[in-house]
Amino acid sequence: MSGAWLLPRVYALAVLAFLVLPLLLCVLFSFTTGNSAAFPIPSLGLGWYGRLAESPQFRAAAWTTAQITLGCGTAATAIGLATALGLERLSRRAAVLILLTLCLPLMAPPLVLGLSLLTFFNFIGLKLGVTATVLAHLLFTLPIVTSVLYARLSTMDKAALEAARDLGASPGRAFVTVTLPVIGPSLIGCMLIAMALSLDDFVIAFFTTGSNTLSTLIWGMMRTTLNPGINAVGSCIIAISVVITAVAFKFTRYRG
Amino acid sequence: MGDGFGSRAFRFSSRHVVTVLLLAPAAAVFFGLFVASLSFFFVQSFWKATTFRVVPDFRPFNYVDVIAGYGGPLLRTLSMGLIVASVTTMTAFFFAYVVRFSLGRFGPAALLVALTTLFGGYLVKIYAWRTILGADGIINSALLNLGLIDAPLPFLLFNLGAVVVTLTYYLLPLAILPLYGALSDIDETELAAARDMGAGALRTILDIVLPQARPALMASFALCFLLAAGDYVTPAMVGSPGNAMFGNFIQSQFGLRMNTPSGAAMSFTLIAACMIVLAAVGSGLRRWLQPR
Question: Which residue range or ranges hold the ABC transmembrane type-1 domain (chain A) (predicted)?
């Protein structure tokens, strides 16, 4: 009996350790005062972060990434909301069919997606840069945002909405005063998920960006030198993603 | 035709106009970016690459060249994808199973911890494994300092094993997500009934849990397989230079050579090959996981 109790716990702990430890080590080595990400760590300090903060390349990349991430989060949430509201007006069958179609870009390998977008943008004459990357990131953020918002809208209690309409509220007013407060947390959650997905991407950004983003900056550093500076950039990305993800799951009340 | 019919028809159509307007931006993104760029890429896969530019042509032989020139790497890539997808899906399934049925009130916390690693940054994760497995990496430097080895173990990095570990690490949280969703929909009374009638844990999983979770199993497997088989950064960073994956060959068509037709033909060959493998896996799962 104790084996049946112990085994699942050991397994779960092992999987969690496998998932978490590498990221923790990455963060730990970002605080080293040594010149390599290895044991023994001479002492802990913020030296590598100081060097980053002074680096013009890092600042430029962080600014580009901020524009892409925020742009993608806003655009995906706005378009996703419109799409979810539109799907709500269709039959459930049609809505699910459209949702599955919208999810097709998630099944294309990022390399193929990135290369075909690069070729296409060159063909139509769209300059590579923040706009191009935001458009490219919409392909894989929009289906996820739309799915979450549609699920939220279709489980929402419609009685309050009907009551507002019966009392003479215009569709727009009913939406702002009834629907929006109910789905508000999901909207924030979706925006954060879209931002985390955009931040996570390297391959598509690599082919569509005009200047360095944080991930293409890491790529360049990984190809030239291996030093704890990469750990410091990486730790920034990890910290932002973990906070974004935790808050997003709280807002969308993720239950699986 | 009375006024009533006319006004109803008008309301009917104005309702449709609003629906169409709401769906228009998503349609623009889907058709204007996804369908348009992939179609253009597909058309280019039949074009001809000359020294300086790409010229329109109709050359189905581009695909023959791909199979003839890169058949070996393609098979190697598909096998690697199958290994990664199988290992990841199984690990994720048992983790989701344990979280759902065994951990009790610690389940949600374990799930949350697993899912916060969902977006650690794709490159950061690859880099993390490079620092763990490298010659001056964490494992080697720890073993050296403990005096267990005299020289760094060279076989940890730059091989297929490192690629599989790194990709599994990256894909595991993605695979857990749909599997946990499917398992949380399973009725616990059904499992209790099976146990009461004398079915062991393995029997219950095989006959009740797995068949009900089959769509999610397939979704996780497909996601892991497609992302692993299409990946080129992991093999380039932790894999063996002599055993490059198909994605590395695709990417190399776009460096100095800028051979878009060849790269496009390789891309669609890869997608077609992946679809064939996934169709086979899907029909296998349907056959083996029948509810009993």
Answer: 62-248
Query: What CATH number is associated with residue A86?
Result: 1.10.3720.10
| Residue ranges making up the domain that contains A218 | 55-251
Q: What is the pLDDT of residue B224?
A: 94
The yes-or-no verdict on residue A227 having pLDDT over 90 is: no
DSSP state of B168: H
| A97 phi/psi in degrees, rounded to 5 | -60, -45
Could you tell me if residue A108 is inside a domain? yes
Q: Which of A89-112 are b and which e, b meaning 16 or more Cβ less than 10 Å from the residue's Cβ? A: eeeeeebeebbeebeebbbbbbbb
Q: Which amino acid is at B244?
A: A
Look at chain A and report how many structural domains it folds into. Answer: 1
Query: What are the phi and psi torsion angles at B257 (to 5°)?
Result: -75, -35
The nearest alpha carbon in chain B to A217 belongs to: B123
pLDDT tens digits along B77-123: 999 999 999 999 999 999 999 998 888 888 888 988 888 888 768 89
Enumerate residues 184 to 243 of chain B having a beta carbon within 8 A of any beta carbon in chain A: 184, 201, 222-223, 226-227, 229-233, 237
Helix (H, G, I), strand (E, B) or coil at B49: strand
Task: Tell me the shortest Cα–Cα distance from B28 to chain A, in angstroms.
Answer: 10
Classify residue A96: in a domain, yes or no: yes
Q: Does B146 touch chain A (CB under 8 A)?
A: no
B273 pLDDT higher than 80: yes
pLDDT, chain A, mean: 88
Is residue A220 in a domain? yes
